[in-house]
Amino acid sequence: MPYNSQIHFGTNEEAGYVRNKLIAYNSVHGPRGIYEEVNLCLKNDNGDIIAGLNSAVCWNWMEIEFLWVEEENRKNGIGKKLLAEAEKIARSKNCTFIKLNTFSFQAPEFYKKYGYKEIAIIENAPLGCNHYYFKKDLI
After folding, report:
1. pLDDT tens string for the chain (139 positions)?
2. Of 33, 64, 108, 109, which sits most exposed with the smallest number of CB within 10 A?
3. Are 108 and 65 in contact (CB under 8 A)?
4. Is the Cα torsion angle 7, 10, 13, 18 positive or negative in sign?
5. What pTM was computed for the model?
């Protein structure tokens, strides 16, 4: 390793630096190189966050990293509303598909209900559960 380098755990700021360096590289070398974070949240009347969706637009797709709804607010259409808004934003940014992943103890049936197609499963990740990958074409 050059300069007697040592590997260490990075801070959030350092992780952001690495992410931004890769994004810069990709934008020069990939077609239509874009990366834009799209993060949504829903707040109650007190201003408390009760749901959110974190995603990014990369080239021609949106990648949903997290969709979370506070447990007492689930099954009230909030997740559907966030997903619909993300899809609307993805279309406005000329995305051709959305991809995401979820676990068997989270929401695979929820995503199937809204047109997401299962494209891969990793079994026993975590042990005793499955890790699902989904894609929804927008065109």
Report:
1. 566 788 889 999 999 899 889 888 887 877 777 889 999 999 999 999 999 999 999 999 999 999 999 999 999 999 999 999 999 999 999 999 999 999 999 999 999 999 999 999 999 999 999 999 999 999 9
2. 109
3. no
4. positive
5. 0.87
